[in-house]
């Protein structure tokens, strides 16, 4: 299906229903939040009901300004809203029910379903799904779909969409950032997005506790032959600096900035035998394949998963998987 064809389908879907629940992947990032908020605002601007749910380990901090435009409901509220009346469901920035976490019941109870995503799929979709896995962000796809469908983009929506472009492109630096990405960004700025504020907030502003986490992570990081950089944080490590696992997220981007790093691995212990794993690559190593081997997903150069094993075993397993994908890494140096 072409982008033009799907844009007409999207508009028809939004016009057909009066009540919507929107959800994205668990542990939402800027692209997930930005796309959900932008589409939710578009729906409300049409005079219809729209609710957002994310399965998150903690409060959404850096994306708070955008998230507050259409705050997410709690799991209890989501269950209540789903039970009160029929609703259509929109899945954004993921295409598998399991990636919704506690919200995985939402697609099953919906009267209609639509998915928009930009991740490589590890299984055949069960429902109507539109994927552009060559596009840097779901927010980029959504900008063009709304534009083609002639659905107005307000200043608030523009800011939300720009957030997704900025975060998933790594500040317009990651491979996959295209001419179309820059065109979308320029159009969103013209519509009212504030690039200076967004980029500074996402990439150049860190809370004091975040710097403490960085220092602890840098102490734990190790460099392996072949250009693998890895750091693993236990709950005890985080407790010593008074940080929660959620506050310690996002460190993989700093590991990936190590000059020798071709692949960066960051592990966080969430609870016994539940390890969050974030992966980044600078070369042609497809870390999404590594993540999918553990039930996760992502892009060639950025991916993540949850490994249900003790931390030491998780380190061993993910290092072996990355080495197998790279085919040239060796022992720790």
Describe the overall structure:
This protein has 333 residues and is α/β, with parallel strands linked by helices. The chain has 14 helices and 11 strands. The protein has helices at 3-16, 30-45, 64-67, 75-84, 105-109, 138-148, 155-168, 179-190, 195-203, 208-220, 235-240, 252-255, 287-293, 311-326; strands spanning 19-24, 49-53, 88-92, 112-117, 129-131, 222-224, 228-233, 263-271, 274-281, 297-298, 302-307. Strands 6-7-8-9-11-10 form a 6-stranded mixed β-sheet. A 5-stranded parallel β-sheet has the order 2-1-3-4-5, sandwiched between helices. Helix 7 packs parallel to helix 9 and helix 13 (287-293) crosses helix 14 (311-326). The longest helix is centred in the first third of the chain and has 16 residues, at 30-45. The radius of gyration is 20 Å and the shape is globular. The termini are far apart. The relative contact order is 0.11.
């Amino acid at each position: 299906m072409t982008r033009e064809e799907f844009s007409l389908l999207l508009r028809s879907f939004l016009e057909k229903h009066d009540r919507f629940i929107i959800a994205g992947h668990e542990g939402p990032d800027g692209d997930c939040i930005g796309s959900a908020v932008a589409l939710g605002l578009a729906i409300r601007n049409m005079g219809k009901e729209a609710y957002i749910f994310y399965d998150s380990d903690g409060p959404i901090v850096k994306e708070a300004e955008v998230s507050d435009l259409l705050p997410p409901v709690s799991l209890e509220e989501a269950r209540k809203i789903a039970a009160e009346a029929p609703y259509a469901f929109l899945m954004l920035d993921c295409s598998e029910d399991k990636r919704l976490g506690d919200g995985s019941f939402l697609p099953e109870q919906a009267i209609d379903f639509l998915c928009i995503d930009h991740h490589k799929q590890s299984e055949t979709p069960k429902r109507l799904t539109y994927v552009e896995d060559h596009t840097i962000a779901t927010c980029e796809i959504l900008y063009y779909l709304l534009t083609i469908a002639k659905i107005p983009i307000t200043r608030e929506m523009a800011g939300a969409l720009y957030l997704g472009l900025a975060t998933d492109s790594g500040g317009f630096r990651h491979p996959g950032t295209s001419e179309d990405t820059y065109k979308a960004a320029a159009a969103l700025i013209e519509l009212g997005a504030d690039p200076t504020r967004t980029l500074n907030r996402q990439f150049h502003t860190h809370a004091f506790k975040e710097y403490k986490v960085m220092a602890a992570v840098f102490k734990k990081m190790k460099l392996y032959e072949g250009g693998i950089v890895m750091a693993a944080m236990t709950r005890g490590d985080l407790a010593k600096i008074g940080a929660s696992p959620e506050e310690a997220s996002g460190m993989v981007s700093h590991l990936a900035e190590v000059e020798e790093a071709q692949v960066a691995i960051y592990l966080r212990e969430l609870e016994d035998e539940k390890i969050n794993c974030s992966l980044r690559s600078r070369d042609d190593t497809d870390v999404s394949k590594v993540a999918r081997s553990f039930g996760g997903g992502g892009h060639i150069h950025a991916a993540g998963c949850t490994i249900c094993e003790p931390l030491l075993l998780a380190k061993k397993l993910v290092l072996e998987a990355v080495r197998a994908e790279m085919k040239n890494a060796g022992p720790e140096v």
